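Q: Protein A?
A:
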Amino acid sequence: MPIKIPNNLPAVNILEKENIFTMDEDRAYAQDIRPLRILLLNLMPTKIVTETQLLRLLGNSPLQVEFDFIYTATYEPKNTPHEHLVKFYETFADVKDRKYDGMIITGAPVEKMPYEEVVYWNELCEIMDWSRKNVYSTLHICWGAQAALYHYYGIPKHDLPQKLFGVFPHTVNMKEKMLFRGFDEVFYVPHSRHTDIKKEDVEKVPQLSILSESEEAGVYAVIDKTYRHLFITGHAEYDVLTLKTEYDRDVAEGLPINIPVNYYPNDDPQKTPIVRWRSAANLLFSNWLNYYVYQGTPFDLNRLSEDELRGIDGDGI
């Protein structure tokens, strides 16, 4: 949360140079407070696991947040009980007349397929286009990030020679951006994917900036020029045993799979994995929720169409 300080206090300039978010008295008194409305488009097959991972991180905030969950109507999930979907989920048709402060589009295990061959591709494109006018800030994760970068900017994905699998070190390119406020010089993020986007493809698009990357894992975080659409290629939300579950599954099925990098002590799958990414994960999601949703979204969500191209306070957070 921001520090509220007296108007024109000399310390403001120093604090802002140190990337400490401040709010003067005039702005603080003018703020209206209400719960944030977040929409989760869950494309993962194990929806209960994914929603739990994300809610755990988004709940680590003093902000009051309300969630709606949707899945694609053009594909019936096979790994989530129908009763769970009926009780807790809606489809796009149910929510398209609503507006939201924030939205998360998850990854999906379809990355080896061409985008247009994914059964719900047309529906996903419709949802992404809808989000531009009905959601203040959207966070795209892993395949969801690749899909959005392809849909909006034509950035292709490329097959990797082998699965990128493990927990990799990352650095921040643009330290002045608030998404990585409080991060260490080097931080770790889990990745589990067969495809990648190339840095040179992103750099060709003037509307995009690369906020973070990894020598081993490539481009990690991308943001658009309005500072309202973020694309994250890794899985900061993963639990401690998520990579172990994937590894054990592939081993049991006789599939080619390497031991996940930087995960087991001494690369021994019989030992308990080491968590290297939890603090960075909590910071990532709390920073998004605070600086890219709460600090910018209008109190009256019906104003979203007016603010569509404004960005967050126009100041490049």
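Q: Protein B?
A:
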Amino acid sequence: MQQITVLGSGVLGSQIAFQSAYHGKDVVVYDVDARVLDRLPERWAYLAAQYRQDLGDATPERLDAAVARLRTTTDLADAVGDADLVIEAVPEVLDIKRETWAAVGAAAPERTIFATNSSTLLPRAIADATGRPDRFLALHFANNIWLQNTAEVMGHAGTEPACSDAVAQFAEEIGMVVIRVQKEQPGYVLNSLLVPFLTAASKLYVRGVADVETIDLTWRKATGAPLGPFQIYDVIGMQTPYHLSRSSDDPDQQQFAEILKRDYIDQGKLGRSTGQGFYDYR
């Protein structure tokens, strides 16, 4: 699969696109907001700097070639018109994802395989919206994709096995360690472990048990972990935790969503990718 389309140019969508281009794929990045796409050159420069810092093979020539393989558009039909694989990384809201996939299913070639990067939603909740549920599955990446390079491949009961195999091969081709999830599981393997941990941290914070720095310090010192939970929130970015917390029935989580929106998202403090989140990285 050479022609790749990424739907959504947020923190992880941009990383998926750049990683794919870095490994030789031709990538179209789609977003509904042209202003967001206009800012992507700054994002490519940021990612290139991270690759140079963290990867031994990230030469200027290779990074320039990756950027040259990236194209942006606000026209969905144009974005998916020649796609071998469409990877969706739009907000973690079921209605938005289903609406997006219905439009993709109507416009993409018959050969196209569809993959969602959803963090929590099951493939079966979205698959029928595409009109081609047998070609739909989940392909979930961790943040900082070039370093935390896992790719969880998870189909639903109706996914054609050959499509799962093709997506797993694609993931290997772009430098991922493939995790084959054997049955549908909310949160896959990674987030089934990570989300309860982060939720516990947010509850300690919302309830006033300890502040952000103390919670992180406790976890790092007591376990030897390199990052505390709020440092991990900054890596993930604020948008996904906000959407998940806002949709929770837990009053603590709803309060946490309000804090994320008021004190961070509305202030442009979206995490490490913007230089500020719970911590200041400038």
